[in-house]
Amino acid sequence: MLLDILQFLIFFALLTLCVKPLGLYMTKVFQGEKTSISKIISPIELLVYRLSFVDPDNQMEWKEYAISMLLFNLMGFIFLFLLLLTQQLLPLNPEHFQGFSFDIALNSAISFITNTNWQAYSGESSASYLTQMLGFAVQNFLSAATGIAILVALIRGFASRESKVIGNFWVDITRTTFYILLPLSIIFAIFLISQGVIQNFNNYQIVHFISSQIIPMGPVASQEAIKFIGTNGGGFFNANSSHPYENPTPLTNILETFMMILIPASLTYTFGRMQKNTKQGWAIYFTMLFLLISFMGIQYWANISSNHIVSLLGISGHYIEGQEIRFGVAGSTLFSSITTATGCGAVNAMLDSLLPIGSMISMIFILSGEAIFGGVGSGLYTMFAFIIIAVFVAGLMIGRTPEFLGKKIEVKEMWMSIIIVLTSGILILIFTSIALTTKEGLSSILNPGPHGLSEILYAYASTANNNGSALAGLNANTLFYNITTSITMLVGRYVPAVAVIYMAGSLAGKKYIPPSVGTLPTNRVPFIIWLMLIIIIVGALTFFSALALGPFLENILMQRGF
Amino acid sequence: MSAKKSDLYSIEIFKTSLINSLKKLNPKELISNPVMLSVEIGSILTTLEFIRQIIFGSSIPIWFTGWVSIWLWFTVIFSNFAEAFSESRGKARAESLKKSKTQIMAKKLEKASFDSKFEVIPSTQLKKGDFILVEQDDLIPGDGEVISGAALVNESAVTGESAPVVREAGGDRSAVTGGTLVISNNIIVKITSNPGETFLDRMISMVEGAKRRKTPNEVALEVLLIALTLVFIFVVINLKALSIYSINSSGHGSPISLVILVALFVCLAPTTIAALLPAIGIAGMDRLFRKNVVALSGKAVEAAGDVNVLLLDKTGTITLGNRQAVEFIPSGSHTKEECAQIALMSSLTDETPEGRSIVVLAKEKYNLRFHELPANTETIPFSAKTRMSGVNIDSHKYRKGSADAISEYISQIGGKIPENLEEIVMEISKLGGTPLVVTYDNDIVGVINLKDILKTGIKERFEQLRKMGIKTVMITGDNPLTAATIAAEAGVDDFLAQAKPEDKLRLVKEYQQQGLMVAMTGDGTNDAPALAQADVAVAMNTGTQAAREAANVIDLDSNPTKLLDIVDIGKQLLMTRGALTTFSISNDIAKYFVIIPAAVISIYPQLNALNIMQLANPFLAILSAVIFNAIVIPLLTPLALRGVWYRPMKAENLLIYNLLIYGGGGLIAPFIGIKLIYLALSIFI
C-alpha cells in the first residue's frame, strides 16, 4: 500500500512538473508565435492553408467560428459514416469485414467526431485497417483539436477587451493538430512500439497452443498514441487497454495514464499564460487535482477493501475481480480514475466488475460533467462554466455584481454556463428514464437489480459527457442504444460547444474591469473551496436518487449478502 | 405616532398584504416568478389528486395528500405575502404623495413678468415652457425653475422635512417641485415637465413598485433558479422511472405516487430564494426611501454596490459649507486680543453662521463675551453695495468685510492701510481660507481667518470606503493649493481643483474608460453633464432641475454623504440575494435525505440506511419536509426585508463569513427543523 501511494505521489509530482513547459509551448502555438519546431511544421501549415483556401489572418466573430466548427465536424461525420458503410469495398481489409450496419455506423461515426469513442462495435471483429487508420485515428486527432480550439476561443474571449473576434477556427485546429497532437503522438507511438505494441498490416495470426487461437493484428501503436493524447479512448481492440498489444508493460500502463491527463492539465497553464494570470491557471489546476486525488483515494480504498461476505467464507486478501492484475490495484485505480475524470474512457480494468463503490467513483467522475480535467479542451471549458456559476453566487454574497477575470458576469453568461453545465445532466436523466421503463431499454441488461440500473445510468453518463467508457455488462449494440446514445453524444457535445463559443464572443465584447480591493480573488483558497462545493453540489442534487438506487444500494445489498 | 396607532397601522398593512397575496395566486401574476408558478401548478395537481382520492380511494393515506396540498398552497401564499408586504409601505407612501397631487390650480402668465395678466387653469393642463405665477400660500402646480424672485418653500410633501427652504432665481437653488407650498414671497416659475412626467409622478410610480423592472443581475439570478427548477423536474421524472425499474427487480413495493413526486419537486426547487426575490428588491428600494433617497432606477442602486470611485463635491459633503472663524491675525501694531475684541464687537448682531463663529471663537479662545448688548447699538447689515457689515455703538464704528471693500472704505474716510495687511490676506487665501478685514473707526485692526470646516466623522467614513475598495475624489472650484490642503485634512485619495463642468465630465469618462464604476454627487447645473455620464448619479433635491433630470438617484434631504448609505444598501441588496440563494440550495441536501428513503422504503427497505434522521413514518417525514420548506419563507421574510447584516470587510472574509452562516446554516437548519416538525406532528398522529 505504501508503494502504491508512493507511485501516486511520483505520478502527480511528475505531472505537475510537466504542466508549465507544455502549457507554455501550447501558448506559443495558439498565439501564432514561433516554436522550436516551426521550421519543419510551418511550410506544411502554410500549404494546408493554401490548399484549403483559408486566410489565416481572418479573425472570426463567434457566429463564423461556431459555424466553421460545426461544418468541419459535419464533414468529418459524413466521411467516417460513409467509410464505415463501405469498408468492404475498400483496401486494407485482410479479414474481409463487411460494412457496418446503418445504426452502428451512425453511432460509431458520431462517437468518434464527438471525442466520445463509445464503442458499440468490436474493433478486431468488425473494423478494417483502413477504417481504423483513416476513419477512427483521423477523427481522434480532429475531435481533440476541435475541443482544444473551442477552449482557446473562450480563453481569447476572457483575455480580449471590447473586441468582437475570437480567433480563426481553421488556424486553431491546424496548429493544434500539427504542432501539438501530431508530434506528441509520433514520439509516443515510437515509444509504444519499443515496448511491444504492434504496428503492422498483417493478416490475423493463428497460433497453435493447447488449442488454436486467432491473434488479431493491425496498425495499433499509431492509433494507441492519439487515443490517450487526445483523450479519445477508443481501443483498437475490444478489450481496450487491458489487451497486451495495446498496453504491454507496467511502463506503458503508467505512461498511457500520464498521456491521458497531460494536455488537459497543461491547458490550465496555457490559459493562465494567455490571460497573463498564471496564478489563476494554477488555482484551476490544483482545484482539479485536489478533486481528482480525493475521489481517487476513495476508489483506491474501495478497490483494496474486501467483500466481507467473502471474508466470512475464510477467503482473505482483497478483491481483485475486474482489476488488471498485471499492473496491480494501484495501476488499475490510477488508470480507471484518470480515464473517467479526463474524457478519455479507455480502460485497463473492467469497471463493471469493480466493487460498487469503486465503480460509483468512476461514475461520479463522469457525472461531474468533465470538470475534473475532462476531455482535451472540453474539460477546461466546462470548468469555466462552473467557475462562472460559482463566481455569480459568490459575487452576490459579497455584495458586488459578479465578475471573473475582469469581465462582468451577466444574463448571457449565466445562460450559457448553465447550458454548458446542465445539458449532460438533463440528457442523462431523460434517457435513463426512457431506458429504465421501456422493453427495448431493459432487454439489454445482463445483470438485473441495482447493478443493471448502474449500467444504464453509466451508459448515458458516459455518452452525454463524451467519455466513452462503459460498464460493459450492458449490451449496447442494439438499435435502441445505438440511436439513443447517438443523441446523447451529439447533444452532449455540440450544445455546450456552441454555448461556449457564443459566450466567448459575448465575453470578448466586454470591457475589462481592473481588480480593486473589493474584488473577490478567484485564485485563492476560499473561492476554490466554494467552487469545489458548487461542482459537487450540482452533481449531487442532480444524481442523488439515481446513485442511491444504483451503486449505493448495490453496495448495501452486497454487504448484507443479497 | 402612538404605539396603539402604529399597531393599528400594521394590522391594516397586514390585512391588505394578505388580501393582495391571495390576489397574486392568479397565474397571470405569478408568471413573473416562474419558480413559484411551478409550485402553484404542483399545488393544483395535488389538490386534484386529493379530490380524486376522496372519490375513488387510494393506496396512500388521504390525509397525507390533503395536508401536502394545503402546505403547498401555503408555500405560494407565503411567497406572495412577502412580496405584498414589502410593497405595502411604498404603496402607503404613494397614497400620501398622490394626495398632494390632486387639484392644484395654476396661474398661467401670458408672459414672464409679475405684472403680466394670468388665467387660472388646472395644473394637469400645464405644458413644458409655460410661465406661472406662484404667490404666498399657493401650492406650486408643477416642476419647474424659478426665473424671477425668491421664496421660502415648504417641501415637506416630498421630503418629509418641515423646515422651509429658499428657492430663488439663478444659481443652484432654482428648482421647485410640484405639490410643494410657497410660504412667503411671490415667484415666477417656468414649467419644465409635461403632466404625468413630473418628479412627483416618477416618485409615485417608483415607490408603488409599478414601474419596478427586474435588474439585469436579478434576471441572471432568475436564470439560475429556473434552470435548477427545470433540472429538478427531470430529477423527479427520473425518480419515477427508477422506482418502476426497482419494483421490477426487487419484486415488491409500490411506485412512487404523484403526491410524493410533487412534494419532492417543491422541496428541491429553490423556493426560498424565489419566493423572497421580489421582496428583497422592493424592500431595498424602500430602505432607501426611508433614508429619504429616491432611486429612479433599481439598476443604479445595484451599481452602487460596485462603485469603485466616488466623486464628491467639496462643499456640503466634505466640509460644512459654512465658513467658520479659526484665527484672528492682528495687523500693524495691534495685538491679537485687540483684533479679537474688535472682531467680536463687529459681529455682535451678526446672525449669519460666519458671524456666530466669530463670537464663539472670541469666547473660546480669548474668553471675551458680552452678556448683553450695549445701549445705542445700531446694526449695519451686510449689503451687496457696501460688502461690509458691523455695528455702530455710540459714535464708534465697527466693521468687517472683504479686503478690497474695506480698503476702499478706509481710504474714503482717510484711514491708513497697514503695510503687512496685503501679506496676511494673501497668506490666508493661499491656504484656502477667506480673509475678513476688521476695522475700528478708521483703523484697520486685523484679519479674521474664515475657513471651511470638515464635517465631523467624514475622515472615518473615507477610511471605511477605502477598506471597501472605493476611491474618493474631491471636486472643488478652489485653487489647487487650497484643494490639496483640504484633501489632505479630509483624507480623500485625490482631488480635482478649479473644476469646470467639462473637467468633471472628462474625469468621469476617464475613470469609466479604466473600467471603473463611478458614483457622483452634484447639485448645480454645471454638474449635470457629469451626472448624466456617471453610473450612479445622486442629485440633491435642492439642486437645479437640470441636475435632478440627469441623476438616477435623488436625495431628498440634500445630504451628499447619503451616497455612502446608497452604496451600503446596494451591497446589502446583492448580499441578501446571494445569502438566500446559498441557503436555499444547501437546504436540498437534507431534504434528499428525508424524502428519498421515505419514497422508496417500500421497494428497498435497505435504503433506510439513508434515513439518518430516523423518521419512522415515511408519509409524516415527507409532510414535515414540505412544511419546513413552506414556513422557512415567512421565517426569512424579515431578513429579506431588512437585508443581511453587513459591515465593510475584505471580500474574501465576507465570502467566508456568509458561506459559513448561510451555507452552513442552510445545511444544518433543515435537519433540525424537519426533525422538530416531525416530532411535533407525531403527537397528533
Question: What is the secondary structure topology, with strand pairs?
Answer:
The complex is a heterodimer of chains A (about 550) and B (about 675).
Chain A: H1 2-30, H2 38-51, H3 62-85, H4 102-113, H5 123-126, H6 129-159, H7 169-195, E1 205-209, E2 211-215, H8 220-229, H9 250-274, H10 278-304, H11 308-312, H12 328-341, H13 356-367, H14 378-397, E3 403-404, E4 407-408, H15 411-437, H16 439-442, H17 450-464, H18 479-508, H19 525-559
Antiparallel strand pairs in A: 1-2, 3-4
Helix pairs in contact in A: 1-9, 1-12, 2-7, 3-4, 3-6, 3-18, 4-18, 6-7, 6-8, 6-18, 7-8, 8-9, 9-10, 9-12, 10-12, 10-13, 10-19, 12-13, 13-17, 13-19, 14-15, 14-19, 15-17, 15-18, 17-18, 17-19
Chain B: H1 3-23, H2 27-30, H3 34-56, H4 62-99, E1 105-109, E2 118-122, E3 131-134, E4 144-148, E5 150-154, H5 156-159, E6 165-168, E7 175-176, E8 181-184, E9 187-191, H6 199-208, H7 216-250, H8 258-268, H9 271-290, E10 293-295, H10 298-304, E11 309-313, E12 319-330, H11 336-346, H12 353-366, E13 377-380, E14 388-393, E15 396-401, H13 403-412, H14 421-430, E16 434-440, E17 443-454, H15 458-467, E18 471-475, H16 480-490, E19 494-496, H17 501-513, E20 518-522, H18 528-533, E21 536-540, H19 545-550, E22 553-555, H20 562-600, H21 618-642, H22 651-684
Parallel strand pairs in B: 11-18, 11-20, 18-19, 20-21, 21-22
Antiparallel strand pairs in B: 1-2, 1-3, 3-9, 4-7, 4-9, 5-6, 5-8, 10-22, 12-17, 13-14, 14-15, 15-16, 16-17
Helix pairs in contact in B: 1-4, 3-4, 3-8, 4-6, 4-9, 4-21, 7-8, 8-20, 8-21, 9-20, 9-21, 10-20, 11-12, 20-21, 20-22, 21-22
